[in-house]
Amino acid sequence: MNRGLVALLIVATALALYYVWQGWQIVDLSTRVTAARAEWERLTLQRDRLRVEIAKIWSLEEIERQARERLGMKKPSPKRLVLPARR
């Protein structure tokens, strides 16, 4: 076989392999982008749920409920309310 023909076949094979490798890279990156978008959406939903939960926990109604249930606190009746004397 001619040396030029062998060199041409080697170059053609290398170019074909490079083309296939580029295609594989595109598919791989597309898959990663899709996975990253799905993860971003999942985390965004989780963040929104946590924001709602935080707002609920810090609401005055929730704080009052926790004070009654966990700490046994009660609202004082108007009769029992003792104010400090003014000086």
Describe the structure.
The longest helix has about 55 residues, at about 5-55. The chain has one domain. The mean pLDDT is about 90. The protein is mainly alpha-helical and about 90 residues long. The N and C termini lie far apart (about 115 Å). Helix content is about 75%, strand content about 0%.
Helical amount among residues, as a percent range? over 70%
Total number of distinct structural domains: 1
Give the termini distance in whole angstroms. Answer: 115 Å
Task: Give the DSSP E fraction (strand runs of 2 or more residues).
Answer: under 5%
Radius of gyration: 35 Å
Determine the structural class based on helices, strands and strand pairing: mainly alpha
Helical segment count: 2
Largest sheet: none
State the main characteristics.
single chain; 87 residues; mainly alpha
In short:
This protein has 87 residues and is mainly alpha-helical. Helices cover 75% and strands 0% of the residues. It is rod-shaped.
Set down the secondary structure blueprint.
Elements: H1 3-57, H2 60-69
